[in-house]
């Protein structure tokens, strides 16, 4: 792979200010960066959404050949979807000094009432680097889907999460017909179908 031509050293942050701080944070920065044709850009003003970094985990049961997916209300989906209740993978924010594996285990129990084994990193990606600094880490894990049922979530966070056991064939169909409509779930499921045999072998 070709090494990146430029690095963080080729960006000058001139000013940085917090313009909003609530549950999330919004910052406004003024920057200049090197240009491909030489020289420096003009001063650019950019607003960045600061929400920290997150981890998402797709639990799978090799015995039942089922995934655990969750369903919950997402206000942001109302702008483009007929229903803002989305099918998702289990996910949560990474707190300062917290290990990613601990987040996977904590969120899986809080959101679905399940335990994980065989935790394996899949990849990580930038959620939307034009407007946020967030990086999302995707993991796979083994679980016992016979224990996955009911409604879960923390009352203190107003979570109302329905747990679903989803067969492989159904998950593939949901990918094809757009029923799975968020990046983390799409990426995790597509990775599984491309790498299933390698994953199962690593769990033996």
Helices and strands in order:
Layout: E1 11-21, E2 25-33, E3 44-50, E4 54-61, E5 66-73, E6 85-88, E7 90-93, H1 100-112, E8 117-126, E9 135-142, E10 151-152, E11 161-167, H2 168-177, H3 183-202
Parallel strand pairs: 4-9
Antiparallel strand pairs: 1-2, 2-3, 4-5, 4-7, 5-6, 5-11, 8-9, 10-11
Catalytic activity: ADP-D-ribose + H2O = D-ribose 5-phosphate + AMP + 2 H(+)
Family: Belongs to the Nudix hydrolase family. NudF subfamily.
InterPro entries: NDP_pyrophosphatase, NUDIX_hydrolase-like_dom_sf, NUDIX_hydrolase_CS, NUDIX_hydrolase_dom
Keywords:
2 domains; 8-stranded mixed sheet; 3-stranded antiparallel sheet; 38% strand; globular; EC 3.6.1.13; ADP-sugar diphosphatase activity
The fold-level CATH name of the largest domain is: Nucleoside Triphosphate Pyrophosphohydrolase
For the secondary structure, the number of strands is 11
The helix-and-strand class reads: alpha+beta
Count the helices. How many? 3
CATH superfamily of the largest domain: Nucleoside Triphosphate Pyrophosphohydrolase
Q: Major beta sheet, specifics?
A: 8 strands, mixed
Residue share in β-strands: 35-45%
> Termini distance?
32 Å
Give the radius of gyration. 20 Å
CATH level 1 name of the largest domain: Alpha Beta
Give the H and E element order: EEEEEEEHEEEEHH
Can you tell me the overall shape?
A: globular
| Quaternary organisation of the protein chains | single chain
Q: Percentage of helical residues?
A: 10-25%
Family: Belongs to the Nudix hydrolase family. NudF subfamily.
GO biological process, one term: ribose phosphate metabolic process
GO cellular component, one term: cytosol
EC number: 3.6.1.13
């Amino acid at each position: 792979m070709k090494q990146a031509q430029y690095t963080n050293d080729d960006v000058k942050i001139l000013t940085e200010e917090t313009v909003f701080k609530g549950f999330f944070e919004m910052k406004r920065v003024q920057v200049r960066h090197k240009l491909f044709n030489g020289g420096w850009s003009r001063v650019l003003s950019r607003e960045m959404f600061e929400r920290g970094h997150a981890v998402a985990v797709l639990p799978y049961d090799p015995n039942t050949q089922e995934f655990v997916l969750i369903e919950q209300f997402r206000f942001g989906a109302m702008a483009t979807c007929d229903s803002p209740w989305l099918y998702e993978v289990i996910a949560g924010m990474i707190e300062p000094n917290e290990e990613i594996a601990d987040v996977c285990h904590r969120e899986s129990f809080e959101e679905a009432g399940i335990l994980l084994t065989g935790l394996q990193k899949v990849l990580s990606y930038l959620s939307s680097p034009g407007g946020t600094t967030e990086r999302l880490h995707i993991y796979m894990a083994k679980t016992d889907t016979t224990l996955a049922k009911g409604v879960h979530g923390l009352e203190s966070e107003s979570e109302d999460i329905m747990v679903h056991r989803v067969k492989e064939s159904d998950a593939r169909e949901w990918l094809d017909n757009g029923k799975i409509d968020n990046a983390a779930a799409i990426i995790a499921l597509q990775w599984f179908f491309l790498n299933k045999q390698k994953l199962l072998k690593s769990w033996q």
